[in-house]
Design goal:
The protein has 81 residues and is an all-alpha fold. The chain contains three helices and no strands.
Length: 81
């Protein structure tokens, strides 16, 4: 699936599975409660993905700042290729 993203881990797969199950439940039962459940699960998954990605990017930025401060240009250049 989206495993090529470095921030995408096992916990993210759990959120994807829950979202998929909620969608299958909605397809089988078109009631308002299943629609609400699907929307809640989608919102939780999106929030989780956004937070995990943000944490990953902040850590990467801090790593790059450290490489620049220490004048470790080799690691800095390898990251951008």
């Amino acid at each position: 699936m989206k495993q090529h993203k470095p921030w995408f881990g096992g916990e993210c797969l759990g959120f994807l599975d829950r979202r998929k199950q909620a969608k299958m439940q909605w397809v089988q039962d078109l009631s308002q409660s299943s629609i609400d459940h699907l929307n809640n699960v989608r919102r939780e998954a999106s929030r989780h993905f956004r937070n995990i990605k943000e944490e990953y990017l902040k850590a990467k930025i801090d790593e790059l700042k450290t490489d620049i401060k220490v004048k470790n240009i080799r690691d800095f250049v390898w990251v951008h290729q």
